[in-house]
């Protein structure tokens, strides 16, 4: 009864498996670059063993081949194992599956020491095998007959035998040259000299370009050297090598004062050059045509032409706000504070440097935060470095909502920091929020705020406007000064005219007795003054007078003493 049951079960499973086409539902046994199971491969020190293989349909995708050998692997010790399993049978036609005998060859010469019933199906373009686990170790199924090419070689069969050959295009077979100075458009005086170059294949990898110029760099002093070397010849097509002449251009006008036989190979995506050392200095091979971007500009090509553009990450292009800690969204405006006002900010790129954080706040912030009345916070996220310059909106928090009004800013991620294009605001008592950390205790830290404005990309007329907007108090002071000076002038004039009338009156009337001193009083004053003079002078006056009359030598001097002793 049990036997019948198991038979039914087996039949049922068979039925199921045949229903599922193994050409579609298989597992991959060996991936493209594996060649372990190849008949050309010897036994491994740690041999493979298929005792743990799950029963099921397998496909081999290795470039070594997918066919199980149909001849005895005599003596075994191949396919990375000791007992190499081969197929005692023939392959079926397209779409047909058949059962064959898999034999494990032993080193004693027995070609079928162990045998298994396996299935093989021809899926037209490939084969699939229904494999079973082996009974003992080390037995393993063999597939394919090719091997990967040795290091430094390649072949038409995806780097597998047959036809492996040396390939200079392979990374390990050439060196790289990374000198932007070699650009033929580089006219900066340089002293590159290729007399120390080890002969061999080179790939120029600098961002300035990979091609050797095929026209003479007239007049020399290019490519970072005085005698630039160019290529008198033409480039080979894909996969080909061309023998060409490398000509030494000279500063005195010669275009081929000396030459070298070199080779150039087309590796599809780039060229490589089989170069020789130069016989003299300063001679160097030219490569590429691009040049450095002007200072303050950058490009997608690592800072080299083409398409250089303004670089908001270059220190000369942005201003800095240092230590403006109260811009932190954590800080609430205090009564004693003067609100930060970005109506006084010069429009331009800024970098922020504060212990409370250097990035713009991107979460909604209520009124009175960020050291101002109407704080500005950014919608969205900070960009990545690869995003380059992005446009963002900032929201102005106000009486009605945390987004009463929106403004445009630009943001650039410079890696370790961000820069922001901030426009001078047209409203007072409003400022951009930067940083979210609490402002540290002022007793423990002393920070000074400094501002470096961004470089002016605005013209003078705009500057004047800025000044007017910036400093309205100056005009108030000027106006007040003007009013004050007219008042003063008026007072002075009034006084002057009054005095003139008074003195006229004094002459005509003798009623000034009370003001002017009498004759007696004047005499008395004189006397008093003289007395004072004598009293203050008296202690030293007699000596001085005496010495002064005798000689011009000052008192107490040695000469005086000598004179006395004579
Ligand atoms: C291969 O199979 C054939 C027929 O099935 C059999 O006669 C032969 O002995 C087998 N070969 C080996 C080496 O077992
Ligand atoms: C499948 O069989 C056909 C002949 O019917 C043959 O041409 C083809 O090469 C076989 N496919 C494989 C992968 O061996
Ligand atoms: C290039 O020169 C080498 C020897 O340096 C030579 O073997 C090869 O045939 C030449 N190739 C061509 C296309 O002239
Ligand atoms: C390099 O020089 C060539 C020829 O003088 C010129 O056509 C080309 O535009 C230059 N390229 C750059 C990036 O300056
Ligand atoms: C400021 O930060 C402190 C500490 O992280 C926190 O307790 C406080 O609520 C924050 N205040 C505001 C206004 O965000
Ligand atoms: C703020 O920016 C950070 C970093 O860019 C991001 O992870 C976060 O989701 C942003 N928050 C909001 C509210 O958009
Ligand atoms: C100067 O400002 C005017 C108007 O503000 C603008 O149109 C012009 O392009 C500016 N010139 C320069 C050189 O920036």
TrEMBL record:
Region (Disordered): 443-466
Membrane-traversing stretches: 473-498
Keywords on record: Disulfide bond, Membrane, Signal, Transmembrane, Transmembrane helix
UMOD/GP2/OIT3-like D8C domain mapped to chain residues: 67-142, 211-286
Keyword presence, Signal: yes
Domain of life of the organism encoding this protein: Eukaryota
InterPro entries: D8C_UMOD/GP2/OIT3-like
Signal peptide: 1-20
Family annotation (PANTHER family): ENDO/EXONUCLEASE/PHOSPHATASE DOMAIN-CONTAINING PROTEIN-RELATED (PTHR36191), VWFD DOMAIN-CONTAINING PROTEIN (PTHR36191:SF4)
Protein's recorded name: UMOD/GP2/OIT3-like D8C domain-containing protein
Organism encoding this protein: Mytilus coruscus (Sea mussel)
């Amino acid at each position: 009864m049990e036997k019948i049951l198991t038979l039914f079960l087996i039949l049922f499973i068979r039925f199921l498996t045949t229903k599922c086409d193994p050409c579609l539902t298989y597992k991959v046994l060996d991936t493209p670059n594996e060649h372990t199971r190849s008949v050309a491969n010897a036994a491994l020190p740690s041999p493979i063993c298929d005792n743990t293989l799950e029963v099921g349909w397998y496909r081999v995708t290795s470039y070594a081949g997918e066919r199980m050998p149909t001849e005895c692997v005599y003596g075994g010790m191949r396919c990375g194992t000791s007992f190499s399993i081969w197929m005692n049978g023939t392959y079926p036609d397209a779409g047909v599956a058949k059962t064959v005998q898999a034999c494990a060859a032993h080193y004693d010469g027995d070609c079928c020491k162990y045998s298994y019933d396996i299935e093989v199906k021809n899926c037209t373009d490939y084969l699939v095998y229904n494999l079973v686990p082996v009974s003992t170790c080390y037995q393993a199924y063999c597939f394919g007959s090719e091997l990967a090419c040795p290091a430094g070689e390649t072949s038409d069969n995806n780097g597998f035998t047959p036809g492996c050959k040396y390939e200079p295009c392979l990374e390990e077979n050439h060196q790289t040259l990374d000198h932007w100075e070699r650009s033929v458009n580089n006219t900066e005086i340089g002293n590159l000299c290729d007399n120390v170059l080890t002969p061999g294949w080179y790939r120029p990898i600098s961002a300035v370009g990979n091609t050797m110029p095929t026209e003479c760099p007239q007049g020399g002093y290019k490519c970072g050297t005085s005698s630039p070397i160019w290529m008198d010849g033409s480039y080979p097509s894909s996969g080909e090598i061309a023998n060409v002449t490398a000509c030494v251009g000279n500063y005195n006008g010669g275009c081929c004062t000396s030459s070298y036989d070199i080779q150039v190979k087309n590796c599809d995506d780039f060229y490589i050059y089989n170069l020789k050392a130069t016989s003299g200095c300063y001679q160097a091979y030219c490569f590429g045509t691009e040049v450095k971007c002007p200072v303050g500009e950058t490009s997608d090509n690592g800072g080299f032409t083409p398409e250089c553009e303004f670089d908001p990450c270059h220190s000369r292009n942005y201003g800095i706000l240092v230590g403006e800690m109260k811009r932190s969204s954590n800080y609430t405006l205090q009564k004693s504070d003067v609100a930060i006002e970005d109506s006084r900010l010069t429009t331009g790129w800024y970098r922020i440097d504060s212990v409370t954080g250097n990035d713009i706040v991107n979460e909604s912030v209520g009124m009175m935060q960020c050291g101002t009345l109407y704080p500005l916070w950014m919608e969205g996220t900070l960009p990545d470095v690869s995003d380059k310059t992005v446009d963002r909106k900032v929201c102005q928090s106000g009486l009605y909502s945390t987004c009463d009004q929106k403004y445009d800013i630009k943001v650039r991620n410079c890696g370790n920091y961000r820069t922001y294009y901030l426009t001078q605001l047209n409203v007072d008592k409003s400022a951009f929020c930067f940083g979210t950390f609490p402002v540290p205790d002022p007793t423990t830290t002393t920070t000074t705020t400094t501002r470096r404005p961004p470089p002016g990309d605005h013209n003078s007329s705009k500057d004047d406007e800025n000044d007017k907007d910036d400093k309205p108090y100056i005009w108030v002071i000027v106006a007040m000064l003007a009013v004050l000076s007219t008042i003063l002038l008026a007072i002075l004039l009034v006084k002057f005219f009054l005095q003139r009338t008074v003195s006229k009156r004094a002459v005509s009337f003798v009623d000034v007795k009370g003001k002017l001193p009498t004759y007696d009083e004047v005499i008395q004053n004189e006397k008093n003054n003289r007395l004072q003079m004598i009293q203050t002078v008296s202690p030293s006056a007699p000596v001085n007078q005496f010495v002064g009359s005798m000689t011009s030598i000052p008192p107490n001097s040695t000469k005086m003493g000598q004179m006395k002793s004579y």
